[in-house]
From TrEMBL:
In the N-terminal section; belongs to the glutamate 5-kinase family. One of its GO terms (biological process) is L-proline biosynthetic process. It is found in: Mitochondrion matrix. PANTHER family: DELTA-1-PYRROLINE-5-CARBOXYLATE SYNTHASE, GLUTAMATE SEMIALDEHYDE DEHYDROGENASE. It comes from Psilopogon haemacephalus (coppersmith barbet). The gene is Aldh18a1. This is Delta-1-pyrroline-5-carboxylate synthase. It catalyses: L-glutamate 5-semialdehyde + phosphate + NADP(+) = L-glutamyl 5-phosphate + NADPH + H(+); L-glutamate + ATP = L-glutamyl 5-phosphate + ADP.
Length: 758
């Protein structure tokens, strides 16, 4: 039994079909019955006289989309007063203009004064027009809408409450969207907020409380409250330190300072929070979000239902660890402390991590075995991904060797002076290397990526957020634990954070105030999704690894089969594996060509014929569906070209600017290929598999970049650094360098400090 305005009624929230409210945003997609509350600021125009028709049409479209998915949608709307105000103003202007014209006998009108309009009269004039507008909009989507007007007194009568409940259930059963509003034409004047002391008492004095009450009475899964702010802030929005609260928990009210209410409407944010907490206690999940922002209002409702990080989500379940926002702040602070350490101290941390990888080998392999067993039992990973997921003693030994290389090469990476200039007398300028800031590395099925990337971040002084795939959860957990153990050597444990919350990748890509660079490590689809989702954060990486090997007419028979076998068969799931083999036309039906085909058959490589290659064959292999395909397995495409120039053109048209190889003994042809192929890595008589940070001597890599800005190819420590300028003067001002000033610019280059090459 709950009491609203001291009148008891039965809600029985524990008997709801779905039980408690949703604990996580990701569960909102399971919401069946949804109430959307439209605040006055959402529905009305900026002049408070009339409706925001475009915004309203977008909301109706989203509600219709969800209704047609089989959900049960209800709308609690404002707007009758604003719509009525517009109509009454028009009528008053017209009436006064006519009377003035009749009285004066003149066609020229004087300024007409508009009297103050009483809100209940405006509501009476606006209700019918508002509902007619909703009906017209919903009709466009073949959906019927029905109007229900209520007051607080209707909830005091048990019979009226039952009638309302029955009416709403019947409308939902008939696939009709109820449009609910307080009957402002007869509602009494607002009373003081006497019931804001707790969540156990609530009365219908505004549409926030009405929406909360209906949501609980109708056992609704989700209540979406749309306002003119992004959600709930820890201090009034617009203040310097205001931060959007992603998840709000009961009991957090003390940490929030409420500001003034919106420009229109009865309720403010305090009323919304109170109503939201009441609904949450009754078993309904709540999200408060912005319904007026032009960039997001067109999909805000559907985004919320899809579980995206929009607005403030009210939850009764607090996570065991920090939120991802808190982890980002911890990584930022830890990274700055890390960058301030001496180079030898950062190197010590990496050496310690390398030792832990070998010392704790048994524990790591045991955790990895759990991941492999779960993946195999669930059958959710293809064979190439299972290979990437697997760790071994040899892999861990190679990782340790790579980490020691990073430690040895990182001695002067941060703070290295790369340019010195004497701008004027006693005014010297330096450009020095500094960390980028906070990196977000998203990887899947590659637990060995975690220590590699962590070591590079430590060496370059960057804070790091890691988001691994759930298929490698056990492996990632122990590897991250060892990384933090190594970081604790110098008190910078928080610099590397593993995101274990249910944060979607798309939501992480929106944290532009916490993250400075995103580096995806995984499938081409993952990289494309991240590049699409990233808002205001640069993404470094490659979406595809379509690597070519071109066999020239002057190629060595001994080298061809070795290089092709290594490029395709050594590790076909790698992004630097051969995917398209280009063969000069003159090599067809030669012993060299036969040797290539025989080798591929022995290695069980499935061959797809390119269009030109297929035209030369009577019985050809399956013709390729696309020349722009990354197989990631023992498959490849063979195509024929007429010259090295055509090979270059083919690579530019169908390649991904990753790694491309020529096999030839002709120096001139090789140099033409090396100079003209516009890819991150271009090789001569060497396997594509050399495109790797470890093999380049970088120790490890955070990935291979095919972008043309900042870093390209295997990205090691240097790719994780940027620069800043240091100017040291002595009472220098720009006015001294004016035409009649006492100083002149020198701009002399100065020698750089000697680098530590040990």
């Amino acid at each position: 039994v709950r009491c609203w305005s001291n009148i008891p009624f039965i809600t029985l929230p524990l008997s709801r079909a779905h039980g408690k409210s949703f604990a996580h945003r990701s569960e909102l997609k399971h919401a069946k019955r949804i109430v959307v509350k439209l605040g006055s600021a959402v529905v009305t125009r900026g002049d408070e006289c009339g409706l925001a028709l475009g915004r309203l049409a977008s909301i109706v479209e989203q509600v219709s989309m969800l209704q047609n998915q089989g959900r049960e949608m209800m709308i609690v709307t404002s707007g009758a007063v604003a719509f009525g105000k517009q109509r009454l103003r028009h009528e008053i202007l017209l009436s006064q203009s006519v009377r003035q014209a009749l009285h004066s006998g003149q066609s020229q009108l004087k300024d007409v004064a508009i009297p103050v309009l009483e809100a209940r009269a405006c509501a009476a004039a606006g209700q019918s027009g508002l509902m007619a507008l909703y009906e017209a909009m919903f009709t466009q989507y073949s959906i019927c809408a029905a109007q229900i007007l209520v007051t607080n007194l209707d909830f005091h009568d048990e019979q009226k409450r039952r009638n309302l409940n029955g009416t709403l259930h019947e409308l939902l059963r008939m696939n009709i969207v109820p449009i609910i509003n307080t009957n402002d034409a007869v509602v009494p004047p607002p009373e003081p907020n006497s019931d804001l002391q707790g969540v156990n008492v609530i009365s219908v004095k505004d549409n926030d409380s009405l929406a909360a009450r209906l949501a609980v009475e109708m056992k609704t899964d989700l209540l979406i409250v749309l306002s003119d702010v992004e959600g709930l802030f820890d201090s009034p929005p617009g203040s310097d330190d205001a931060k959007l609260i992603d998840i709000f928990y009961p009991g957090d009210q003390q940490s929030v300072t409420f500001g003034t209410k919106s420009r229109v409407g009865m309720g403010g944010m305090e009323a919304k929070v109170k109503a939201a907490l009441w609904a949450l206690q009754g078993g309904t999940s709540v999200v408060i979000a912005n319904g007026t922002h032009p960039k997001i209002s067109g999909h805000v409702i559907t985004d919320i239902v899809e579980g995206k990080k929009v607005g403030t989500f009210f939850s009764e379940v607090k996570p065991a660890g920090p939120t991802v926002e808190q982890q980002g702040e911890m990584a930022r602070a830890g990274g700055r402390t890390l960058a301030a350490l001496q180079p030898e101290q950062r190197a010590e941390i990496i050496y310690r991590l390398a030792d832990l990888l070998t010392d704790q080998r048994e524990e790591i392999l045991l955790a990895n075995k759990k991941d492999l067993e779960e993946a195999e039992n669930k059958g959710r990973l293809a064979l190439p991904l299972l290979k990437r997921l697997s760790l071994s003693t040899s892999k861990l030994n190679s990782l340790a060797i790579g980490l020691r290389q990073i430690a040895a090469s990182s001695q002067d990476s941060v703070g290295r002076v790369i340019r010195r200039t004497r701008v004027a007398k006693d005014l010297e300028l330096e450009q020095v290397t500094v960390p980028i800031g906070v990196l977000l590395v998203i990887f899947e099925s590659r637990p060995d990526c975690l220590p590699q990337v962590s070591a590079l971040a430590i060496a370059s002084g960057n804070g790091l957020l890691l988001k691994g795939g759930k298929e490698a959860a056990y492996s990632n957990q122990i590897l991250h634990h060892l990384t933090q153990e190594a970081l604790s050597t110098h008190g910078v444990k928080d610099a590397v954070q593993l995101v274990n919350t249910r944060e979607e990748v798309e939501d992480l890509c929106r944290l532009d105030k916490l993250i400075d660079l995103i580096i995806p490590r995984g499938s081409s689809q993952l990289v494309r999704n991240i590049q699409k989702a990233a808002k205001g954060i640069p993404v470094m990486g490659h979406s595809e690894g379509i690597c070519h090997v071109y066999v020239d007419t002057d190629a060595s028979i001994e080298k061809v089969t070795r290089i092709i076998r290594d490029s395709k068969c050594e590790y076909p799931a790698a992004c630097n594996a051969l995917e398209t083999l280009l063969i000069h036309r003159d090599l067809l039906r030669t012993p060299l060509f036969d040797q290539i085909i025989d080798m591929l058959r022995v290695e069980q490589v499935k061959i797809h014929a390119g269009p030109k290659f297929a035209s030369y064959l009577t019985f050809s292999p399956s013709e390729v569906k696309s020349l722009r395909t990354e197989y990631g397995d023992l498959e490849c495409c063979i195509e024929v070209v007429d010259s090295v120039q055509e090979a270059v053109e083919h690579i530019h048209k169908y390649g991904s600017s990753h790694t491309d190889v020529i096999i030839t003994e002709n120096d001139k042809t090789a140099e033409f290929f090396l100079q003209h192929v516009d890819s991150a890595c271009v090789f001569w008589n060497a396997s594509t598999r050399f495109s790797d940070g470890y093999r380049f001597g970088l120790g490890a890599e955070v990935g291979i970049s095919t972008s043309r800005i900042h870093a390209r190819g295997p990205v090691g420590i240097e790719g994780l650094l940027t620069t800043k300028w240091l100017l040291r003067g002595d009472n220098h001002v720009v006015s001294d360098f004016s035409e009649h000033g006492s100083m002149k610019y020198l701009h002399e280059s100065l020698p750089l400090p000697q680098r530590n090459t040990n």
